[in-house]
């Protein structure tokens, strides 16, 4: 049987009633904006209030005339009006964040590499697609941006020709395509031999192909172990489009990872460009190369210092032992034979 007597001792009161002793800040916090503004609620619950983006003068005039209908947002528990013009411009701050994110993303995409633009001239007007490339000691990553509105991801095909077999990755010797199974001895307009080619196409439903990118490789690459094709993937560009359509008309990347082949094991080759004809970078200014060189130099100095210390310790021990032997021989009594 249920005992309901405990409910008789309960007290109920209105915490919002006049004269209440409840001084807690549990009620809704409200701020009235005296002109159009922007309210941003962060993932942590923090709220930022700022000026809204510029709009039409008629809209602003209508909103000024109807202050009573302005939105009420989280902010002050007193409900006092806030002069929105004194607050920071939220739109400008948002633009700064986007610009910073784009800069960081581009720095990652071009680490030890650079940026180029490829043009699809069959379109009117011509379509300009960005090409980013980066590298480390072992691989070169080539990324070509494209708009999925015109080229759906499922239609993208990549063909990389001329890659060496995995077992030949440390024997990349010869001059260009003469050392590979590459079809014929292709070269660029200046007669520079290539080590293969990269082609990206979009296949349409009627078996037609639109070439998004094509180029010749300046250095040899090799396949990964137990692979018979060079790896590629479709990834989000991660860079917000801006008003310059010619430079940002893309929302996906075709990302191609090419593993460097070298003439001998232990050798590291830094590429000055990923495709013949691209602008070349100064390999002596590559960040990771400097870090590697500094590490080797530091390691070499440490080894030299260690060897010197060992030699000095050995010499000191030898001198001490020799001195002890002399003292022992001086104290030794002569024996008559």
Molecular structure report:
The longest helix has 45 residues. A hairpin with a 6-residue loop joins strand 6 and strand 7. The strands form 4 sheets. Strands 6, 7, 8, 12, 13 and 14 form a 6-stranded antiparallel beta sheet that branches. Strands 4-1-5 form a 3-stranded mixed beta sheet, with no helix packed on it. It has a 3-stranded antiparallel beta sheet with strand order 9-10-11, with no helix packed on it. It is built from 4 helices and 14 strands. With 337 residues, the protein is α+β, with helices and mostly antiparallel strands.
Write the SSE topology.
Blueprint: E1 31-33, E2 37-41, E3 47-51, H1 57-65, E4 72-73, E5 81-82, H2 90-109, E6 114-120, E7 127-135, E8 139-146, E9 156-161, E10 197-203, E11 209-216, E12 221-222, E13 232-236, H3 245-248, E14 252-260, H4 287-331
Parallel strand pairs: 1-5
Antiparallel strand pairs: 1-4, 2-3, 6-7, 7-8, 8-14, 9-10, 10-11, 12-14, 13-14
Number of helices: 4
| Beta-strand residue percentage | 15-25%
Spans of at least 5 consecutive residues whose pLDDT stays below 50 are 56-60, 63-78, 177-185, 242-248
Q: State mean pLDDT (0 to 100 scale).
A: 76
Distance between the termini: 120 Å
What is the helix fraction of residues, given as a range? 10-25%
Task: Label the overall shape.
Answer: flat
Please tell me how large the radius of gyration is. Answer: 36 Å
> Secondary-structure element sequence?
EEEHEEHEEEEEEEEHEH
Q: Characterize the main sheet.
A: 6 strands, antiparallel
| Number of β-strand runs | 14
Oligomer: single chain
| Secondary-structure content class | alpha+beta
């Amino acid at each position: 049987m249920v005992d309901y007597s405990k409910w008789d001792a309960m007290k109920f009161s209105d915490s919002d009633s006049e004269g209440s002793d409840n001084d807690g800040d549990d009620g809704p916090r409200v701020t009235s904006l005296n002109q159009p503004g922007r309210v941003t609620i962060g993932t942590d619950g923090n709220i930022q209030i700022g000026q809204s983006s510029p709009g039409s003068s008629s809209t602003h005039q209508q909103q000024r005339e109807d202050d009573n209908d302005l939105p009420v947002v989280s902010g002050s528990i007193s409900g006092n009006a806030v002069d929105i013009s004194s607050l920071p411009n939220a739109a400008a701050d948002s633009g700064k964040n986007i610009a910073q994110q784009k800069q960081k993303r581009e720095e990652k995409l071009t680490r030890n590499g650079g940026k180029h633009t490829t043009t699809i001239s069959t379109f009117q007007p011509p379509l300009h697609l960005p090409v980013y490339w980066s590298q480390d000691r072992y691989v070169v990553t080539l990324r070509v941006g494209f708009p999925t509105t015109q080229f759906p991801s499922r239609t993208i095909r990549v063909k990389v020709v001329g890659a060496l077999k995995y077992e030949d990755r440390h024997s990349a010797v010869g001059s260009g395509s003469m050392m590979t199974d590459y079809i014929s001895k292709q070269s660029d307009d200046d007669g520079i031999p290539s080590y293969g080619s990269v082609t990206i196409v979009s296949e349409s439903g009627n078996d037609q192909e639109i070439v998004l990118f094509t180029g010749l490789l300046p250095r040899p690459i090799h396949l990964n172990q137990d692979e018979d094709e060079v790896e590629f993937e479709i990834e989000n560009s991660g860079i917000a489009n801006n008003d310059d359509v010619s430079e940002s008309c893309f929302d996906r990347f075709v990302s191609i990872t090419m593993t460097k082949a070298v003439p001998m094991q232990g050798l590291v080759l830094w590429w000055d460009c990923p495709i013949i004809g691209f602008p070349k970078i100064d390999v002596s200014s590559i960040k990771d190369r400097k870090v590697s060189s500094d590490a080797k130099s530091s390691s070499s100095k440490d080894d030299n210092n260690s060897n010197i210390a060992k030699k000095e310790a050995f010499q000191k021990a030898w001198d001490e032992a020799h001195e002890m032997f002399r003292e022992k021989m001086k104290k030794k009594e002569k024996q008559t034979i």
